[in-house]
Amino acid sequence: MHRSFISNRGLAATLALALIFAPDAARAQMVQPPPPSALRPYVFPAVEQFQLDNGLKVILVQKHTLPVVEGRLIIDAGAMREPAAKSGLASLTGRLLSEGTGTMTGADIARAMDALGAQYSTGAGFSTSFADVVALKNVFPQAMELAAKTIIAPSLPASEFNRVKNQAIASYQQAHARTAGLAADAFIRAAFDSTAPFSRPASGNLTTIGALTRDDVVNWHRTMFAPSAATLLLVGDISPAEARSIAQQAFGGWTATRAALPAVVNPVRPSTGTRVILVDRPGSVQSSIVVGQAGFRATDPDYISMVALNHVFGGGFSSRMNMNLREKHGYTYGAFSGLDLRPGAGAFRANSEVRTNATDSALVEAIGEYRRITSDAVPAGELQGMVNNLVSGFPNSVQSVQGLSASLQNLIVWGLPLDFYTTYRERLSAVTPDDVKRVAASKLTPDNVIVVVAGDLSKIEAPIRARNLGTVEVWDPAGNKVR
Questions:
Q1: Residues facing 387 on adjacent strands
Q2: Mean pLDDT for each 10-residue chunk of the chain (483 residues)?
Q3: Where do the domains of the chain lie, and which CATH numbers do they carry?
Q4: What would you report as the CA-atom Rg of the chain, rounded to the nearest whole angstrom?
Q5: DSSP 194
Q6: Are strands 332-340 and 129-136 parallel, antiparallel or unpaired?
Q7: Counting beta carbons within 10 angstroms of the beta carbon of residue 462, is it exposed (0 to 12), middle (13 to 18) or buried (19 or more)?
């Protein structure tokens, strides 16, 4: 065995030497990856829908590969609906939903779900409040019925209110002890008008969370949770007849009502010229940078082209941002971009955590890439490679019931048709360099972007100012302009 090991190691060394001394053409041939094969057929599962008599919408996707079902109730009661003075109310209510009903404590509910082998969670984000159950097919009806009780008639116990509230405060403090949390908050404050729900964090802040009372939570649930404002997603090993029976059993008796609410608007803060906003975190060994702008919606006719553009710019490991800031310059472990799509208006932004002593240089490169994607045509080969990555990876992203549910929830929140993903891969594959050039020129404004940097200003402010990237402002963590 010892001789075999040495022999294998010697063979590896011989092959390595052969590659080193091989002619250039031969080496290139050996390291050249094979061309992509034809796109494998994939059919997105059919989406069915119906409505209960109380107004609850039910969306069903059958997936019978495993005996698993997910039920996700989505309620139009996210942070975008709450008053600014009570920011964090939706999130706090969402956390309390699973803490008890009229006949069960939170511990009782947890034990019952454990006995069924079910995963259960409740919560709220910017756009929705939710309750989510994943269970084996044979116990899913019981798990879904139990989950429904926490939505329809939660006890929202006073004994748990202060604990959950203190957890929310601690979570906020933890997030804003890091540069990433400081930079993210500063960006949305700068990008959106102060009246826009997106201008404030969905979790609230120390002042608003601290002022919330249990009565606020009870009133929020009473006025916002109703079947007419909810959609139940049922995904997995379940038939239409079973779906109707389970939905009716769990939610058919829900009688709460709510007045219709207007569509949410997220007015963008107008600006002319690049703004550079600095937030101090003394002693930080790295800086968080954000470069981007507001105003994007999934319902835009150019959405698919924008998805392709983003993947070239910063949507994957081989994207331009990551190849530049990480691979070429070594400023960071990763630099990526994304479309943060919200009702009313979202944002497009690039993010990275960079070394303190490279902060100004990383900003120059990031803004340079932002400008390059708008000014230079994307080569066809580069675009094809990045789009192929998206297209080939899509089936895997919806392989599980959780992945399917997440994709369908996006369609509901964004206001897209439920058959959107039926031709998603084909439309992505059809995006051309001209499409990317057109959408970049029409949507991106590299000379009018928001740049946010959170870090140790004693080390990064002077170098950043010296770069003359735009109008420089210094903010405190609460969003107040210091200078």
A1: none
A2: 40 43 49 68 93 98 97 98 97 97 95 97 97 98 98 96 96 94 97 96 96 98 98 98 98 95 93 96 97 95 97 97 97 97 94 98 98 96 95 94 95 94 95 97 96 98 98 94 92
A3: 47-251 (3.30.830.10), 275-475 (3.30.830.10)
A4: 26
A5: T
A6: unpaired
A7: exposed
The gap from C-alpha 66 to its chain's centroid, in whole angstroms, comes to: 27
- Residue 30 near residue 22, CB atoms below 8 Å: yes
Continuous H helices in 415-469: 424-429, 433-443, 457-466
**Residue 273: other Cβ atoms inside 10 A:** 10
Strand order in the sheet with 119-124: 47-51, 57-62, 230-236, 68-75, 129-136, 119-124
Shortest CA distance to 455 belongs to which of 243, 204, 181? 181
Report residue 12 as tokens: 């590896």
The closest of 327, 292, 275 to 473, measured between CA atoms, is 275
Bridge-based pairing of strands 275-280 and 471-475 is parallel
Closest CA to 298 of 42, 79, 127: 127
Dist CA 200 CA 186 (whole Å): 9
Question: Please, are residues 89 and 216 in contact by the beta-carbon 8 Å criterion?
Answer: yes
CA distance 168 to 91: 8
Q: What is the pTM of this model?
A: 0.88
How many Å separate Cα 249 from the centre of its chain? 32
Q: How far apart, in whole angstroms, are the C-alpha atoms of residue 359 and residue 460? A: 7
Alpha-carbon span 286 to 297, nearest angstrom:
32
Rounded Cα distance between 167 and 110, Å, is 19
Task: Tell the burial category of 165 from Cβ atoms under 10 Å away from its Cβ (0-12, 13-18, 19+).
Answer: buried
**Whether the Cβ atoms of residue 478 and residue 315 lie closer than 8 Å to each other:** no
